[in-house]
Amino acid sequence: MESLSTIFNTLLLKKESISTIIQSEVYSRWAAIFTLLVGVCHGIISYFQMPSAYIEFDSPVLQSIAFLIVILIGIFMVFITRVGLTFLLWAGGKAFGGPGLLRVLNRLTSFAIVPIIIGLPAITSINAGNSGNVLLNSLLFIALIWIYFISVKIIEVSQNLNKWKAYSAALFAFIFFASVYYIIIPPAS
User: Fold this and answer.
1) Integer Cα distance of 133 and 153 in angstroms
2) CA 119 centroid distance within chain
3) Quick one: 156 exposed, middle or buried, by C-beta within 10 A (0-12, 13-18, 19+)?
4) What are the φ and ψ backbone dihedral angles of 159, each rounded to 5 degrees?
5) What are 113-150's pLDDT values in tens digits?
6) Helix axis angle, 15-23 relative to 134-158, nearest 10°?
7) Which value, to the nearest 10 degrees, does the dihedral of the CA atoms of residues 171, 152, 108, 79 take?
8) Which chain regions cross the lipid bilayer (predicted)?
């Protein structure tokens, strides 16, 4: 229970919790669990946002297989996102004079992406070609800002950088991440 409390405090931007996660390998297992949970959420939300013509089958077995495939794709997408964000935060930290510590950043990044759960409906809606609504877009904006601030604290604590360097490193990582995301998954037309 103490581990979950530490993770929760990390999501609330507590430096002491981030330091605890940095120092303990126990959180590597929790990182994998959280990546899996966010991936399953992504898959489920994607499944329900897809047009029924793509995933509707007469056979219940095929329907279940389609559901599992979409969930596995969601897990894969979140894993790739975690790895990409890890490398970008690593590059940002190194660029501003930090030691790097890729393994530590990988562990911390899995917790940093947790807030995207509230923005997933907007992401899948936009990728499906829908404009979304004000509520979904607001939730996406909140999730991205929250992830940005978690990333800043992660860089600040793990790379021993001052605040302005951490904010700059995270900003550059997010700008690059957004441009790569846009190139790989352009908006539906």
Assistant:
1) 31
2) 10
3) buried
4) -100, 0
5) 888 888 888 877 776 667 768 888 888 889 999 999 99
6) 60
7) -20
8) 26-45, 65-92, 104-123, 135-155, 167-185
Measured in degrees and rounded to the nearest 5, phi and psi for residue 98 equal -80, 165
pLDDT value, residue 22: 82
Contacts 24+ apart (CB under 8 A), 21-26: 21/107, 21/108, 21/111, 22/101, 22/104, 22/107, 22/108, 22/157, 22/158
**What is the arithmetic mean of pLDDT over 81-98?**
90
Q: Are the C-beta atoms of 100 and 90 separated by less than 8 Å?
A: yes
Share of the chain above pLDDT 70, in %: 90
Q: For the chain, give the DSSP string.
A: -HHHHHHHHHHTT-HHHHHHHHH-THHHHHHHHHHHHHHHHHHHHHHHHS-HHHH--SSHHHHHHHHHHHHHHHHHHHHHHHHHHHHHHHHHHHHTT----HHHHHHHHHHHTGGGGGTHHHHHHHHTT----HHHHHHHHHHHHHHHHHHHHHHHHHTT--HHHHHHHHHHHHHHHHHHHHHHSPPP-
21, 10 contact by CB (below 8 A): yes
- What integer pLDDT is reported at residue 117 of this predicted model? 86
Domain extents for the chain?
2-184
